[in-house]
């Protein structure tokens, strides 16, 4: 009987804990997507401020920022190098849900 009570208590505790843990993982993933979107938008604004002409769609920006690119001055000297390091396909897809494109620049849209 005591063993059944212990098993019952473990079952009740597990039924309460599993959804709470699941919600924590979901909110952590969404927080990561928001952080990545902020970072990508900031990089695009910085690149345009440094003289890069911008892009016509979000996918082009993501490709450029993942691969990395340089902005040069009129003499051909590198002014700045922009790259989003360690951004996986899944991270980029999640961030895309929080990005808009305005005047060739990525805009963070939480």
Structural write-up:
With 110 residues, the chain is α+β, with helices and mostly antiparallel strands. It has 3 helices and 4 strands. A hairpin with a 2-residue loop joins strand 3 and strand 4. Helix 1 packs across helix 3 (89-96).
Tell me the Rg in angstroms: 22 Å
N-end to C-end Cα span: 53 Å
- The multimeric state of the shown protein is single chain
Residue share in helices? 55-70%
**If strands are numbered along the chain, what order do they take across the biggest sheet?**
1-2
The shape, in one word, is rod-shaped
Spans where pLDDT lies below 50 across 5 or more residues: none
Strand-and-helix sequence, N→C? HHEEHEE
What's the story with the biggest beta sheet?
2 strands, antiparallel
Mean pLDDT: 91
Backbone structural class? alpha+beta
Give the number of DSSP strands: 4
**Count of runs of 4 or more consecutive helical residues:** 3
**Portion in strands:** 15-25%
Short description:
The chain has helices at residues 2-49, 58-67, 89-96, and strands at 69-72, 78-82, 99-102, 105-108. It has 110 residues and is of the alpha+beta class. The strands form 2 sheets. Strands 1-2 form a two-stranded antiparallel sheet.
């Amino acid at each position: 009987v005591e063993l059944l009570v212990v098993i019952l208590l473990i079952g009740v505790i597990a039924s309460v804990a599993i959804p709470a843990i699941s919600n924590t993982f979901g909110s952590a993933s969404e927080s990561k997507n928001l952080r990545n979107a902020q970072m990508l938008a900031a990089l695009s604004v910085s690149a345009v401020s440094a003289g890069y002409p911008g892009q016509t769609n979000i996918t082009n920006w993501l490709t450029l920022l993942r691969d990395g690119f340089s902005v040069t001055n009129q003499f051909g000297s590198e002014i700045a190098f922009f790259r989003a390091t360690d951004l996986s396909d899944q991270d980029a897809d999640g961030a895309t849900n929080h990005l808009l494109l305005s005047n060739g620049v990525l805009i963070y849209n939480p």
